[in-house]
Amino acid sequence: MTQQRTVFYVSESTGITAETLGHSLISQFEQTIEFKAIYMPFINTIEKARKLAKQFDMVAKRDGARPIVFATMVEYETRVILKRSNCLYIELFDTFIAPLSRELGVNPSGKTGLSHGMTNGDSYEDRMDIINFAMVNDDGARLDKYDQADVILVGVSRSGKTPTCLYLAMHFGIKAANYPLTPDDFEQNQIPDDLLKHKDKLVALTIDPPRLNRIREERRPGSDYASLKRCASEVRQALTMFRKHNIWVLDTTTHSIEEVSSRIAKAIRSR
Fold it and tell me: For the domain with range 121-270, which CATH number is right: 1.10.10, 3.40.50, 2.60.120, 2.40.50?
């Protein structure tokens, strides 16, 4: 049987650093272990830390194995509270800050929120605007705003467009919109003109039909929408349309959101 472990990503601010580094580490073990991720940002008080420590203890008792905790906690007291609970606590800042401090000959500031601009009003507000853009322009909700986007993801429903857009916004500061190909689009066998007039911004996502079938079954079990036949048909038609218009295609079947997003971000920056 596949081993199952619970992983917490914990931070005093957004948790993006803990998630990014932590996920990179556990990805080396995902072939043999199934990880359940729990995100706990803004653990910035003693009370929140104590409550979370109790949650670690409960998870350890429930799972029969202590949870793995990737953390970026600046405050010493909150660290101690979390470390004393029944978990494997990995403080990511400790791994890098100490040798960096020795090399630079300067002590770290110890201030919270610096890693993601929480103390910098302008940059923080800009990042929030970019994240909000991704949310407002999700699933083709605002076709009139595509001229403001840095990238527009297009693909069949549940191919990974929304999480990729949010990742691009949160980690790379990229304004990302997305459009799901609809039954009408497949019937007409044509990508909408509202998309094609921004062809230079289009990136297509595809996915293996059996994988898409499993994802859709979780959302609408037993439906025609989730059937393997429909999944295969939509993926096949979508790829034909993408090739017709020479749109760059990325496969999300075996590549993580992080990998796909990094490739898109690199392409945008080089452009």
Answer: 3.40.50
